[in-house]
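Researcher: Last one for today. Full complex below.
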Amino acid sequence: MRVMLRRLSFYAVTAWAAITLNFILPRLMPGNPAQDLINRSAGKLSPAAIKAIQVLFGQPHTSLISQYLTYWRNVVTFNFGVSYSFYPTPVIQVIRQSIFWTVVLIGLCTIIGFVLGTLLGMFVGWRRGSWRDALVPVTTFLSSLPYFWFALIAILVFAVSLRWFPSSGGYGIGLQIGLNWPFISSAIYYGTLPALTIVIASVGGWLLGMRNMMITTLNEDYVLLAEAKGLSRLRVMFTYAGRNAVLPSVAGFAMSLGFVVGGAIVTEIVFNYPGIGTVLFQAAEGQDYPLLEAIFLTITMAVLIANLLADLAYIALDPRTRES
Amino acid sequence: MPDQRGTGPARQQGWRADADPVLAAVDVTKHFPVHGKDAGRLGSRRVVHALDGASIGVYQGRVTALVGESGSGKSTLARVLAGLYRRTSGEVLLRGQPVRAAHGRAFRRHAGEVQLILQDPYGSFNPMLRVSTHLRRAVRVHEPGRKGDSLQARTRELLEQVHLRPAGQFLQKYPHELSGGQLQRVSIARALAARPSVLLADEPVSNLDVSIRLGVLNLLAELTRDGAGLLYVTHDVASARYFAADTAVMYAGQVIESGPSERVTSEPAHPYTRLLIASAPDPARRAAAEGTAVADRGQPPSLISPPAGCRFHPRCPFAMPECRTQPPPRIELGGGHWSRCWLFADGRHADGRHRESPRKEP
Amino acid sequence: MLITPDVEAMAAGPEEPGPGRSWLRGILAPKVLTGLVIVGVFTAMAVFGPMLDHADPGAITSARLQPPSLHHLLGTTQQGQDVLTQLIYGARVSMEVGFAAGILTTLWSLLVGLTGGYLSGASSELLSMFANVFLVLPGLPLVVIMAAYLPHSGSAGIIIVITVTGWAWGARVLRAQTLSLRRRDFVEAARATGQGPVKIMLYDILPNEVAIITVTFLGSVVSAILTEASIAFLGLSDVTQWSWGTMLYWAQVSGAELARAWWWFVPPGLCIALVGTGLAFINFGIDDVINPRLRSAGSTPRRRRSRALAGSLARLARPPVRRAAKGPEAARGPGIAGGPGGTAGGTVLELKNLRVEYRGGAAPVRAVNDVSLTLRRGEILGIAGESGSGKSTLARAVTRLLRPPAQIVSGEMTYTARDGRQIDIAGLSDRELRQFRWEEVSIVFQSAMNALNPVLTLGTQIDDVLRAHRPGMRKVQRAARVRDLLHMVGISPDRAGAYPHELSGGMRQRAMIAMGLALDPEIVVMDEPTTALDVVIQRQVIETISGLKDTLGFSVIFITHDLSLLIELCDTIAIMYAGRIVELATAGQLYQRPLHPYSQGLLGSFPTLTGPRRTLSGVPGYPPDMRRLPAGCSFQPRCPRALAACAGTPPQLIRPQIPDPASVACLLYDTDYQDHPEGLTTGGGRA
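Model: Here's the assembly. Have a good evening.
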């Protein structure tokens, strides 16, 4: 339990750091983004929206401390003001509309990529020196590919040439979003190509990591002893070698997650998928700072939660972290 | 090694109770803060009692053995003496003068007199540097003036002092190109670079092959004949008896018995020393066809919360009521032999010494 | 505890190279070479390309969206710009940003990592926390935001953004490395000699981090190139500055993938991936140097090897030959060594001329050479030897646990079951082997901590054996058996639910013994089972073993370097030196009258606790290098009584004093060399 408490306090610090970074960055940057934004909107913004922008990016004639306190109040109440590029929709609503798509697509793909990559890495590492070793250079190449480029190729091949999947969007036009079969089936149909792209592009990294750990673990005495005990090959591979080799991957999940999520978000853009990545792209293009900041916070929180889950998984997998 | 004559290195050194130690630890206590999951809640600073009131002396031209099992604090005591660990309380005396050498020049001066030899010869050399670099570095620390040929000559001389000949052949080698025994000799040569008056050898032969251990021990004995004092830290009572004039036994951070090696091994006083000696493998025992079953009496205590009174009492077959509450004092047994055990207080001496095993076999 | 520089490591290369040379070998590995060539080509392209191709990458022409042709080797963009020209100019920007950001990131990581690792206390913890926070923050969104605040900035801005967001990983790795180096013995040794902290940093810490710094640097370059491409692709950098990322940006906004203009966006992506792969390959090479386990030593799949082995070895008749008619007395076969008999029952295991080689380097290393042994039922056979003598390899050969590059090249291993059935251990198929294992022969390793699976409870690990070999047993029965076994070795049965880390060293070793006895095996091989224990605990474990052996009647092969322990414990003792058995005798004989000069020296290396204190001299010289064994008798260079002939002929195991069953491999006892009769008399006896 103490381990968990320590991790929780670490995530609290990280969340605080992210939120504070969000506060400091616009105030550190050259120029005055808030004023730029207000000027550009040329009277389109309501006084309330202007106020929100100022809270986010800096108000004239107010002390930093009180700005910081007001900023915190807004963050806690999800008041990020009005989106400039989706004017006049409030930022929080833009996020609420897009977050679901991203969580389902990227969440699922990250888990599938991890499980698949780890399993493949286990098989490749288990019998070193066989044909399976040829997978190593291939996966190295795959894991060096930019996700978005891989997405472009996928569209060219499967959407444009073969016409198997649609090239963009999240569901068919004119469908009612909700728990109805036409919508769900269409969402699955539209989501397959982006999902495949993310899974294939992310599988390589997990595979390589697991393979190396597997090779290291196979040299451990407890694997040799499991063999000496006459256990079945599968039992040795999964429960003795694999079970231990997967631990560093789970522990390293945090470090890799940021990378995978980043790549996946750019993939959304290529597919014009209605998730948070596409919104981020539009916000960046339109220099919609309120939306950008809110998206950053949202993604950070999501990553922190995913990390917490990975920590729970680690504690479940490794009894040494638990206390007797 | 081959020039050993007579009756064993230990014999040549008589007991001199009157001599003052070159280097001594007096009532040294060392606590390490506990990290990680044993740490307890914030604020309740828990510590490992690695050393509690340990005293020992190292005498000129003489080998003193410090015997104990892993975790008994013997290596910690050696490092406190070397000035590598700051003690929690107590004194380290060099020629009677208290040592205050945490950093910088004062520490270097202390290191010039007191040198430490580590257990693992492979681990104690930077794998990236040649033997010559290691030796040159050590010489330059203590003789910054030496340069060029004079420095080179000194490194050769050091290797020859530890019988690595021809020296030139070893200078150009990387540590992994030498065998463990050769490397341990280089390690001794490195310590000699400071021309120390005390050598602290922390299990110097435990990691070596059996057949070359004696060669290294005999080399160390030869070096003490030139005047240096040696503290031989070991878990092997038999080698302490063979090699050291005096033997001190440690248990759970305390020195519980000390005296001339022959006395300590042939007439051990403290019940722990007896257990230790009864447990050590000895082929002679088979010849004597002696049934020496040692009962399973648990293991050393936790040093985070050591038992009150005598630390051995939970395992001791002779434990008395006072053993559970009061730490036993140092009780002199004559001839420089003493023990910390209530059995020997107030004339109970003979009683405790000769009471033959009331142990109940399980 | 004891260093055993395993023969496998020695066999890794014919000449163990110094750090310098192992680098060279690392660089020459095919993967690294490929990586270097790829990165070299692209670097050349970035440096020299723009000098050779003077065309303007942004020049708009009317040749729009042309597929590759002789005129435009890689076709043109929608604006009619030449893709190849853009690719060449793009290489310069992408590589520049990649390497510049890589250098800055690495320097910053190094600064934070070194200071964080070398300082101790609160400041170090704070730095580490700082790095960890940055590590968890999702990089790309942060980059996007920062880039959005610096709209259309050139390379300099991008480099700064990448450095600020990318340093944490390297800092964490380098901090961990510095921390672990600080705890190494050689740093302590340097401190003990009086060396100051700055010198220690420069001599001891930094040089040992070179490899990991390089890995960090190359990793940073890869991620910088990818990040630059992402930023450019999102249009957040200066889109008129040609880089591989901006090419992809223009391709995407112009809908190149929908227009099937593959020549426009395939090359830049391929270039990014190729540079990344090249750098990763170089990293693999460095990883192999740092972590030798990853070096692909075993190139022979195990199954193929064992089949080849089964073919090459003399097969014993199967289905089993029954010797029931003759009974156990007759079955006490004519062991080739004529092992000392009489102490126990019939032969349970017989090794004949066993030879194991490590075939990694140029010349095979013979770790076990021509070993013949007989193990009798209920006997404790001790095998004594020093590191590299082949004793552990022998244990693994008998249990068929050898892994490449080690393999059995010749010899026979015959197991005789209680019913007289004979099994050729070397010839067992994988399936038969799995059934044979643990049922007939179990093994106990030196370090129970390493031999127990850290994530399974003790009970589960014992239960695994029962589940694999006793499919008929019900769960309740298995649980009862586990409790019985633990009780038998003196562990409270309620500890079945404990994990290995929750037990003390002595308890773990007992648990290993309990596991070894789970199926009532005929033979338990114990490979240094007490070396890692303190003497008091060792004594308790030894007594447990002898007690159980007496009640259960299994045979033990007990392997250790501690001859004095063997003499107390064993019936028969074999002394191994450089892969061969040099002497085989009962424990009493060996103690009273060791024959081989090495046995004599070894016995003389153990100071005793009783009797007069004499000067002991050990054995002169150093253990042999298994890759370069001397001709003739391997012990001859260290032997104080060597004859001229010893350098010529490797001596065979003979019985010099029939009917005395002790055998020795030494020319001093060979009748052909009997002109040196002192060999027979000055046996170094002690009694």
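Chain B touches chain C through 88 residues (CB under 8 Å). The longest strand of chain B covers residues 47-58.
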